[in-house]
Design goal:
Blueprint: E1 7-12, H1 15-26, E2 28-34, E3 37-42, E4 51-56, E5 69-71, H2 78-88, E6 91-92, E7 104-107, E8 113-116
Length: 129
C-alpha cells in the first residue's frame, strides 16, 4: 500500500501568527500546542486529514520556498477568496509567474508563498505555479 500525506511541517519564527492565519484560511482548528510548536487540522474528522505543523526556528526565510501550498476556493470565487485571504494578512507575491496564469500567488504573513487556484483548477493537472 502507498503512503498517505498526513502532515506538512513549516519552519517559522512565529508559530502562533501562522497557525492563526492558516486556521482562518482553511477553516482548521488548533489541536496540539506546545512552546514553539502548533499543529492545526480540519474541523471535521476526515479519513486522511492533512495536518499543518508550525515549528519555531531561529533563522529567517531568505529565498523563495522550494515547496508551497495551493488552496482552492470551495464557496467563493477566486478573487473573493484572494480578497478574504488578503484581509487575514496575506499579501501578493511575485515568484516570476506569467501574467496570464489562472492562479494568484500570495504570501502568508511571514512571506511563505502559496497559490490560490481558479475554481476547479485543483482537479486539473497544471504547470508549476
Amino acid at each position: 500500500m502507498a503512503s498517505v500525506l498526513s502532515e506538512i511541517s513549516i519552519d517559522c519564527a512565529n508559530p502562533v501568527l501562522l497557525a492563526r492565519f492558516w486556521s482562518e484560511a482553511l477553516d482548521y482548528r488548533v489541536f496540539e500546542e506546545e512552546v514553539g510548536l502548533i499543529s492545526i487540522g480540519p474541523q471535521s474528522q476526515e479519513v486522511f486529514p492533512v495536518i499543518l505543523t508550525f515549528a519555531q526556528v531561529p533563522e529567517a526565510k531568505t529565498i523563495k520556498n522550494r515547496l508551497h501550498l495551493d488552496v482552492s476556493p470551495r464557496e467563493l470565487g477566486q478573487q473573493q477568496e484572494v480578497d478574504r485571504l488578503l484581509s487575514l494578512g496575506a499579501s501578493y507575491a511575485d515568484v516570476g509567474q506569467d501574467v496570464d496564469v489562472s492562479w494568484v500567488v500570495l504570501a502568508d504573513p511571514v512571506g511563505n508563498e502559496f497559490c490560490v487556484l481558479a475554481g476547479k483548477d485543483y482537479v486539473a493537472i497544471k504547470k508549476t505555479c
